[in-house]
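Side project, low priority. Logging it here so it doesn't get lost.
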Amino acid sequence: MFCLGWLLFNNMSKELPYFRFTAFQWLNDDISLEEYPIKGLFIDVCAYYWFKDCSITKAMLEKRFSNALTGLKSLLDSGIIKLRENSDFIDISFLNEQFDELSELRKVRQEAGSKGGKQRASKAKAKLKQKPSYKDKDKDKDKDKDKSEESQEISFKSEVWQFTDKYPEPLLKAFLNYWTEKDAKGKMRFQSEKYFEVSRRLATWASRDKTFTPEAKKIIPHFEYGPKE
């Protein structure tokens, strides 16, 4: 089967801008017995008929093809183009069948589109309900921030308590109490420093501690990152 395309038109062009016919029908139906000018006129008539949504009168046809009235009479007389019973309307059966089929498909598509639109709207509402609010997001951010702060504090204390073989517990504890002090926003003192190397800071701290002597007795705690305060 092959397709024959013609000019775009008002309504049908949006759905199907061409009509179709089989080569077998073209070569074996009555139209095949006509002269080539008549065959060409028939194709033009079919295009006009399709253009008008398969609804034209004999008067409209004669006005449209006023320079081919003899050819139109031949098509009508041979029954290739027919007049509907008790009507002035033209009837081309193979195009009517396609038009009816297309109209039914259009109806099905419209109904499916309506159902699909409702389903999409329903899914969109469901997603909207499931979507977390900005308050939920803020809560999640706060939780992540708290975990990060706690992790940094544990890491800092763990690093400080690695120097128990060099500094006594009271000195390390005082060092930690000072540098883990938090401001109003929960930020620890050592986090405000641009540079902070624990070993150097401890050395400076110890040098300012009058009670500290390198020979002072150290107490090595037996817990993960330092004594509980």
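Brief comment: The first strand starts at residue 2 and ends at 5.
Revisit when time allows.
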